[in-house]
Amino acid sequence: MQIRISWPAGHLTATLADTPTTAALEGALPLASTARTWGEEVYFTTPVSPAREDGAQQVVEPGTVAFWTDGDALALPYGPTPISRGDECRLASPCNVLGTVDGDPRRLATVRDGDPIRVERV
Length: 122
What we know:
single chain, mainly beta, 1 helix, globular
């Protein structure tokens, strides 16, 4: 499945794998939320509350689309967070990995804390 994530200064698409969390998220689309930033990560709450899946990861590659089950939020890291070691993307806790951002994830640097976010299926 492909999704489009939009905010005032830009947008991107992401390709998601077929997972239980992706299916739950798909059922809630389109959705609107408010962006939060944490270091070089954008995250925002969603109306779904899936369980942590086997294979959840805390350290991921830039551009990973992850679901933070502890906060019912999509997490989009594009660089180090406050708890990273070096240049790694370390999430707050293990997250369900859903897919990857298409293209350069550094476009997420234009998201500002408090920006409105919209997610829809492409």
